[in-house]
Structures are given as C-alpha cells and as structure tokens.
Specification:
With about 425 residues, the protein is an all-alpha fold. It has a domain of about 220 residues. About 75% of the residues lie in helices and about 0% in strands. The chain is built from 20 helices and no strands. It is globular.
C-alpha cells in the first residue's frame, strides 16, 4: 500500500506547472522549477531500490566532478544552471503523463472471461503497444495484473506484454525515450523520427509476435480481453499532439505532451466524476507522484551528468573529429549502446553521454536520434535491470535476468533489421 506524502507530491506538481509556464516564454522559471524538483528528490531518495541509489549517486558524482572541472577552467555558470534544471522538461512529461491513468483505466475487462489462443495473444501484443504508447508503464501493469489474477503470469504472457510495450519506445512522443532523444540530439525532428519509428515498431511487432506465438503453449495461453474502444483516448491524444505541433513547431514536444496530458485528464475527470474529480486528483498528487521516485531521480541525475559532461568537454576543448557518420558508424554505435544496456546500465545514461560526445559532430541529428531510439527500445528489452523487467520480477516473481536470456535472440534479429533500416534512411535522405 502506497503512503501519502503531500509535501513531496505538491512540490513535484508545482515543478510541473512552473516548467510548463516557463516553456512559453518565461525561462527564468526553470531555475525555480529545478529547486522544487530537487527538494522533492531529496525526500524521495530513501525510497529508491539499492541499485537505483548506486546509479543515481554515480551520475550525480560524475556530473559534479565535470562541473567542478569546468568551473576551474572558467566555463561559467551556464552548466551549473543546466544541472539545477536537471531534465525538468522530461521529468515534467513523465509526471504529467502519469495523470492519464486516472482516466484511461476502464472496467470493461475487469470481470470478463480471459480469451484463449494465438489470435487473442496477437490482440494483446498490439493492444499493449498502442495503449502503452500513451499511458506508458501503467498499461503494462494493468494488463499483467489482470492475467496474473488466477494462475500467475507465465513467461510467454510476460514476453508478449513487455515486448509489445518496449517497442513503442521507437516512436511514441509520450515515451521518455523520445524526450531524452530530442534533448540529446538537438535539431532532430519529431516529424522525421515518428514515421521511421512507427515502421520499426511495426516490424518489431511482427517479429515479436511470430517468434512468441510459434510456441506450442500459445494456443492454450490466456490473453487480455482487449477492447479497442479503450484506445480512443491514446489515439485522440497522439493526433492532438501532432496537429498542434504542425501548427506551431516552436512549442516544444515535451511541453505539448505534458500540457495536453493534464488538460485531457482534468476535463475527463470533471465529465466522468464531477464532485469526486478533486478527490482523485488529490490522491494522485499526494500518493502516485511521490511513488515515482525511481524515474524522477534517474532523469534528474542524468541531467546533472549531461551538464557535467558538457562542462568538462568544453573546458577540455574536446573534439571527436568525426570525418563521417553514416549507417555503419551509426549501427556500431547502436551495438555499443545496446551492449552496455545489457550489462545493466540504463539507456538514459548511455544516451545522455553519447549525445554529449556525438551531437556536436554529426551532420544529421535525425540519424543520431534514430540510433538513440533504437538503443532505448532494445536496451530496455535486454537489460536485466530495466524498470520493465524489475517490475516483472517484483510483482510476478519472474527473474529479471531470465528476460535477458529470453530476449537475446529477439534483440539480435532486431539489430539486423535496424542495420537495414539505417541504410534505407541514409539512402532516402
């Protein structure tokens, strides 16, 4: 049972509001938003898992060393301010999207008999992908909890859900992956990334489904009772983000996602629940937001790491001196990033680091951004320490390290597909 922590919850909520307002022409609010974010983070640190604490402390330590080194070389206060802001745009998006679970959860499948067989599992795979692309982690947990009620979650069911979910990292503007990538590859365009990411995700779904449902157990495995009307909200939200981004590309994508997530939630809460809307909203702020300690601290500390790396590179006058960054170089970078993720390092760390090193020297930021999106999708599928696999272990008793073994061949196939995709992208551009 989660405990209420109003002070932390409202600090995070104020940070979200300040970050949103600041992104519309009041950049001085970013520092203030950062203060609220770090205050909340200091209160949430004790609730982290041991491994999360190590990762956060390592990023904070390395980032601070880089900032101090830069200060000695007189790089100025710019990087310290960047560290204070600490990826607040990304954190605001994550927290804002979490509000959607208040209106996205329906009772349609709560008491319905679970369908059986390959066709139903295909629907589950596609459903968790589409639903999870907008409400993120919550979609995966909702479906897995429903399947685990009677007999527990089988490895096959867990793989259908996790693979369908993680493939959305290729394209969804509501995923943390897109936020991290747009910040780590400055100049990348959502309009160019999403079509390629959608194609990659579609190919990945076909491959994942074909591999998993060839299992003889599939015909006797329970699936989630997928109701396609439940996907109306994700569809409307995604279209809204793209439509507004088309009309005014000056509004950051992270801002659009955060703002629309909160507005949709407020409107639908009032329409559906009227007088109980305030109660549900308060519970989410006081209980759910403080429970998101892992994501919040991970992304805040990654912001410090990126700022420290930038400060140190500027102070050292480091130059990567890339003569050419084409599909083969992009794929080799992808291999390195995925391999590091397989060792347990979160993709946000590797992407933030690689972004600082490569983004100043790569001519096409969209090519670099595609590599980062691919690395995130495959990295979380391979890593035994990703939040996705740790949730499977903590809630359903499935070893997180077993997922690395189960997904090794699947990731290998996708790496070959992505090599071809990178060559096609370069050829067409």
């Amino acid at each position: 049972m989660l405990k209420a922590d109003p002070l932390t919850g409202y600090s995070l909520f104020i940070m979200v509001i300040l970050a949103l307002v600041g992104s519309f022409g009041w950049p001085f609010l970013a520092g203030l938003a950062g203060c609220f974010a770090w205050f909340a983070a200091s209160r949430m640190f004790s609730s982290l898992q041991p491994l999360q604490r190590i990762q956060v402390l390592v990023m904070l330590g390395l980032g601070t060393l880089g900032l101090v080194f830069g200060q000695f070389k007189h790089t100025g206060s710019f990087w310290w301010l960047k560290a204070l802001e600490g990826n607040q745009g990304l954190v605001s998006m994550l927290l804002s999207v979490s509000f959607l679970r208040l209106i996205a959860i329906t009772d349609l499948a709560a008491k319905e008999k679970l369908p059986l067989g390959r066709a139903a599992l295909w629907k589950t795979l596609l459903g968790v992908h589409a639903f999870g692309a907008v409400i993120n982690f919550s979609a995966m947990i909702i479906m897995a909890d429903r399947l685990a009620i009677k007999k527990g979650l089988t490895p096959l069911q867990a793989l259908v859900i996790t693979r369908g979910f993680t493939l959305a990292a290729h394209w969804s503007p509501f995923f943390a992956s897109m936020g991290v990538v747009l910040m780590s590859a400055p100049g990348a365009s959502l309009w160019k990334l999403m079509p390629v990411g959608l194609v990659l995700a579609a190919l990945g779904l076909v491959i994942a489904g074909s591999l998993l449902l060839a299992n003889p157990e599939a015909k006797n495995t329970d699936a989630y009772p997928m109701h396609w009307q439940a996907l109306t909200l994700p569809f409307v939200l995604a279209v809204s983000v793209l439509a507004i981004h088309t009309l005014d590309e000056s509004i950051p994508v992270l801002t659009l996602v955060s703002l629309l997530s909160i507005l949709f939630t407020l409107v639908l809460l009032l329409v559906r629940y009227r007088y109980k809307a305030a109660q549900y909203l308060r519970q989410h702020i006081e209980i759910t937001l403080p429970s998101m300690s892992g994501e919040t601290l991970l992304f805040l500390s990654a912001g410090v790491l990126a700022a420290g790396l930038g400060s140190a590179l500027q102070a050292a006058e480091f130059s990567l001196q890339l003569d050419y960054f084409g599909p083969w170089q992009a794929w080799l970078l992808l291999l390195v990033l995925v391999a590091i993720s397989g060792l347990g390092v979160h993709p946000v760390i590797t992407i933030a680091t690689a972004g600082g090193l490569f983004s100043p020297w790569v001519e096409d930021p969209n090519l670099l951004a595609l590599v980062f999106l691919m690395a995130w999708a495959l990295g979380v599928s391979l890593s035994p320490l990703s939040g996705t696999h740790l949730a499977m272990q903590g809630r359903y008793g499935l070893s997180s390290y077993a997922f690395t073994r189960w997904n090794l061949g699947y990731v290998g196939v996708l790496l070959l597909v992505q090599l071809i995709a990178l060559h096609f992208y370069v050829f067409l551009n």
